[in-house]
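Section 5: illustrative case.
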């Protein structure tokens, strides 16, 4: 039968525990519920009144995608009752839950004989676990004796090359000799170099081996933006996000707060003051970059597009930073971990748990000029208060 599946998780993964009724949020409202093919087929066979109820809310997937439960007009899952309990669980048992419901907030992606599994920022408990500790990236790998690799057609040479490149990306992200913005600039530069030779895995390996610390020179040679240009770019970013499907009404309200607090004058002063006050919490953004890199970087093996995966991590971190700064200013210069968790969880819900939103934003990152690598580098260097005058 061959060797069991290797599983890799972030080192904080084992510390996750659902707090159930003590959570201030619900997993069963505010987003689409994908139903895996096996569960979809089983639900079709359920008899009686509950079977009829199941089939009345099931929609077929299109173009090879999974089916879904059609959510109610109020955004709640059709099986979430008024007591915030699951009617499907009560009627059919835990084993009948579809993969999405049984595993959330866990996510997995398989690369041949390796499965990478993490916990999603959209869960408040998971977000706090990811954000709170001042640590360097760490991972745990073990064999799952009950799982075995399925046939796959990924490019083995590209996979191995990107694994080495991602290790280098982790080094860049955790290099505290540079501030977080310089690290983002270097990460973008590194991803651009990888993308330029993506069809030649051997060159990715040599590129990774030759990669030297050049953050200082790269940052010093990156042009800084004027306050007017910077705020114009960020307004475009928020516009793109708000043009997507809105999952929770709190998201556009937060975007409006960002605009009111940051982009109507005095951005440079606010940013500079915020980073002076928040310097010892810079590791939270390091943790975010590591999370996005773990979750998305290796998916470049499937479509050959590593640069967009890195842009997703950098842009997401920048957007969360903007929300943090706005709340800090609105609070008169204070900002708690609880508020950071709320913002991060809300962002993740809007972006990571709507396939439609995620795919649309990735297309925008690839094609819109305001998301070009050189523009993002300038933005990173300017956000910390390094605005040109």
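Designed sequence:
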């Amino acid at each position: 039968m061959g060797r069991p599946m290797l599983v890799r998780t972030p080192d904080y993964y084992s510390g996750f525990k659902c707090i159930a009724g003590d959570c201030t949020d619900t997993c069963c409202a505010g987003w689409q519920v994908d139903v895996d093919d096996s569960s979809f087929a089983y639900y079709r066979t359920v008899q009686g009144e509950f079977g009829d109820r199941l089939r009345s809310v099931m929609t077929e997937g299109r173009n090879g995608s999974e089916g879904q439960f059609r959510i109610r007009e109020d955004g709640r899952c059709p099986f979430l009752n008024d007591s915030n309990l699951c009617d499907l669980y009560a009627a059919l048992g835990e084993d009948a839950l579809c993969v999405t419901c049984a595993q959330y907030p866990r996510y997995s992606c398989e690369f041949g004989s390796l499965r990478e599994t993490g916990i999603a920022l959209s869960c408040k408990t998971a977000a706090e676990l990811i954000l709170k500790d001042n640590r360097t990236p760490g991972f745990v790998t073990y064999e799952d004796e009950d799982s075995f690799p399925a046939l796959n057609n990924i490019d083995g040479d590209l996979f191995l090359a990107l694994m080495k490149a991602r290790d280098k990306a982790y080094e860049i992200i955790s290099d505290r000799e540079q501030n977080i913005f310089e690290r983002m600039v270097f990460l973008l530069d590194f991803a651009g170099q990888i993308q330029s030779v993506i069809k030649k895995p051997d060159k990715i390996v040599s590129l990774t081996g030759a990669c030297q610390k050049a953050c200082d020179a790269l940052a010093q040679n990156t042009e800084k933006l004027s306050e007017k240009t910077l705020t114009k770019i960020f307004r475009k970013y928020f516009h793109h996000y708000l043009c997507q499907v809105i999952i929770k009404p709190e998201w556009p309200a937060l975007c409006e707060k960002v605009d009111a607090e940051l982009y109507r004058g005095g951005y440079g002063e606010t940013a500079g003051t915020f980073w002076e006050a928040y310097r010892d919490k810079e590791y939270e953004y390091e943790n975010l970059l590591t999370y996005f890199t773990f979750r998305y970087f290796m998916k470049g093996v499937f479509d050959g597009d590593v640069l967009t995966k890195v842009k997703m991590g950098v842009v997401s971190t920048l957007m969360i930073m903007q929300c943090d700064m706005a709340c800090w200013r609105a609070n008169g210069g204070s900002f708690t971990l609880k508020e950071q968790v709320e913002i991060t969880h809300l962002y993740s819900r809007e972006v990571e748990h709507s396939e439609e939103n995620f795919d649309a934003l990735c297309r925008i990152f690839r094609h819109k000029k305001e998301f070009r690598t050189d523009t993002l580098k300038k933005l990173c260097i300017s956000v910390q208060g390094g605005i040109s005058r």
